[in-house]
Amino acid sequence: MFKQIIKVVPNIFTLGNLLCGVLSITLNMSGFIETAAILIFFSGVFDLLDGRIARRLKVNSEMGVQLDSLADIVSFGVAPALLFHSIAPTSVLTSLAFILFPIMGALRLAKFNVKPTIGYFNGLPIPAAGLPLAGMGFFSYSNAWITLLLALLMVSPIKVKKL
Amino acid sequence: MFKQIIKVVPNIFTLGNLLCGVLSITLNMSGFIETAAILIFFSGVFDLLDGRIARRLKVNSEMGVQLDSLADIVSFGVAPALLFHSIAPTSVLTSLAFILFPIMGALRLAKFNVKPTIGYFNGLPIPAAGLPLAGMGFFSYSNAWITLLLALLMVSPIKVKKL
Transmembrane region positions (chains A, B) (predicted)? Predict the structure, then answer.
């Protein structure tokens, strides 16, 4: 029973990540751009904690890995892209960057789940792309080229050391 | 080479599903509720086709399964919940239903990926919850109890035959 309760603790943090992502989108819809950006950073904190707590409690699970990706695509793929979309001036380049960001994020997450790498990441991890975009959003700054670059780095073959 | 190209065809449909989900959210943000609802139905068409095409071409892959879940949480979890949120009158029940819908959807998707069932689904599949919510949204109708019920059915032990 106690073991069962302990097992769900990291997943509660992962669902906190997802919830902050969803709330970021609703705040963005209501025009609260800065708060929407902050919520993405809250997602980042939950994302950092869930894996660490799972390892500390020794309750790593496949369910946790799956939930984590589902939360990440919303909080670091869709929510930052929508923030960028709300700020950036309308242009073909803006639309391209906006569309490619969540798509490349999904490809990155799916690829990692199929072939997990140990000690390093293949391609920029999605939080490392979504958080800078949220940071730019917080200062109401948008740059389609940077957004496009972050999107492409996620599916690039660069190796990034795990934190 | 030809085999490599054939292999990505179903994934292009899955990314079409994700893209329609993201565009549904942006249309919702701009106040185009009906079009936002229609986009979720487009996601449904892509979702129906990707699996069938993969089976027909005999290119089912773990990458496809992972991408499919990532698209589904956006198109049938977050996008319909946001549509409901845009229409429904503000209340504690509305907030509860809005928050629980994507969370239960994520739990449902993660559970299925960890323990896939053959021939039937355990709990209501997420498109079967998201599409009725989008249908209600199309008619600018919202019902927090129905939304809550759909959310809970996703994590219930009911068995649903596969289409």
Answer: 5-25, 31-49, 93-110, 144-160
